[in-house]
Amino acid sequence: MVPTKRGKTPFVKGFAHNTDIEVGMRLNKKTNRLEFFAIKESQAAEFERLKRLDAMFVRQNLLVFPMEVDPPQKEMSRFLAKMAFEALFERFCNTVGEKAAYKIISGEHYDRVREWARYGHNFDEWPYHYRAYFPEETLMEHPDTGEWVQFGFGCDLLLTSIPETYFVFSYYGHEFVINLGGPAIKGYQQWLSENNYVSFLVEKKGSFVQSVTENGEEKHFLVPLIVLPDA
Q1: CA distance linking residue 83 with residue 116, whole number of Å
Q2: Is the distance from CB of 168 to CB of 175 less than 8 angstroms?
Q3: Region class of 197: left (phi > 0), else alpha (psi between -120 and 50), else beta
Q4: Cβ count near 35 (within 10 Å)
Q5: Is 0.90 surpassed by the pTM of this model?
Q6: CB within 8 A of 89, min separation 6: which ones?
Q7: What is the pLDDT along the chain (231 residues), one digit of tens a residue?
Q8: CA distance 13 to 10
Q9: Contact 208, 225 (CB under 8 A)
Q10: CA dist., res. 131 & res. 202, Å (int)
């Protein structure tokens, strides 16, 4: 993993419902599962108590992560750059090994985005692309249990034909994209135009969002695309 300059991994901030406990959410790279933790050490014991009560079905430990679709541009850009570095490092680790991965991401090619992520003073701005691609309440089928659960977040690296490498991040239907090569998104806008403005994390992964109405209520589901065989 690639920590921040202070040695910390970026996380999403929320809180435990009906409490003042601040909660962080991040992806555990070892288990590939989301983990939740008390941000303040003084609240850690109480948060663990709430988790035990939830496990015993005494009290549901509902965690709330507010949607912020208009975050401060510079801070969000740097946060995306940090996550992009995480994804890039993991991709190289899986292909060439950890030692070679460190050497690659430490190379001159990534100097600009690395400095932007760490310090944010080498450019006035580093734009990113944002759009609300599907409703926040969209459900997906859990890969392990088969239950319908809310689609949380996903990310991947997109290599365009230019070529440029983009980091695509989706958070409850809110899609953010940043260029790892430099402060420009024209190449991604071109990719969208050439691909009918579909999502790299939805249609390009073999899915689409289907909306249905049940008892007057509209519901949204992420379902697989059905590809018919050639006649």
Answers
A1: 12
A2: yes
A3: left
A4: 12
A5: no
A6: 1, 2, 101, 102, 105
A7: 444 444 456 677 777 876 788 888 877 767 667 788 899 999 999 989 888 887 777 666 667 666 556 778 898 999 999 999 889 999 999 999 999 999 999 989 899 999 999 999 999 999 999 998 888 889 998 888 888 888 888 999 999 998 999 999 998 889 999 999 999 999 999 999 999 999 999 999 999 998 888 887 888 899 988 755 565
A8: 10
A9: yes
A10: 14
Here the tokens at position 35 are 């983990």
The number of beta carbons lying within 10 Å of the beta carbon of residue 180 is: 23
Task: Report domain extents, the chain.
Answer: 12-64, 73-210
Nearest to 184, CA basis, from 126, 113, 109, 226: 126
Task: Tell me the three-class secondary structure of the chain, residue by residue.
Answer: CCCCCCCCCCCEEEEECCCCCEEEEEEECCCCEEEEEECCHHHHHHHHHHHHHHHCCCCCCCEECCCCCCCCHHHHHHHHHHHHHHHHHHHHHHHHCHHHHHHHHCCHHHHHHHHHHHCCCCCCCCCCEEEECCCCCCEEECCCCCCEEECCEEEEEEECCCCCEEEEEEECCEEEEEECCCCCCHHHHHHHHHCCCCCCCCHHHCEEEEEEEECCEEEEEEEECCCCCCC
AA letter at 34? L
Q: How far is CA 25 from CA 10, 150, 226, in A?
A: 9, 15, 34
Which two structure tokens, joined as six digits, stand for 198?
């579909």
Distance CA 48, CA 85 (A): 31
Instruction: Note if the bond before 72 is cis, omega within 30 degrees.
Output: no
